Amino acid sequence: xxxxxxxxxxxxxxxxxxxxxxxSGRGFNIxxxxxxxxxxxxxSCLTLVTRGDEAIIEQITKQLHKLIDVIxxxxxxxxxxxxxxxxxxxxxxxxxxxxxxxxxxxxxxxKVVDVSPRSYTVEVTGSASKVQxxxxxxxxxxxxxxxxxxxxxxxxxxxx
Length: 160
Description:
Elements: E1 2-10, H1 15-25, E2 30-37, E3 43-51, H2 54-66, E4 70-75, E5 81-92, H3 98-107, E6 111-115, E7 119-126, H4 128-142, E8 143-148, E9 152-155
């Protein structure tokens, strides 16, 4: 089962290396990883996606808690949360396919961020399934290059 884990940690050199080393040392795979500063420059939020049963996820969270620079670990998969990814896609845009590419981009609420005589570079933001859907639709037209971020996620605020 897929799990999204949010980790608040000290923004210091080597901390990310220790976190990823924990995964590789135990044979766990990280499917997606994204990390950046929070409002406080000395703290970063790391969002990672991994797969495993409850016992494996419990082991991962316990091991993360043991790392000295880790402040808080949350498996947000068990609660309601918002997740997003971003993808940049360079797609062939020859004269005969330009209109079709623009229609697809519009349907997915994407935007063209660069234009060349033979291609468009497109930006799309959304859930992982939305990002995969536009990739699948643009593939037959001719994707030249893809760069994709990892998942970022945040638990939804309490409605109370």
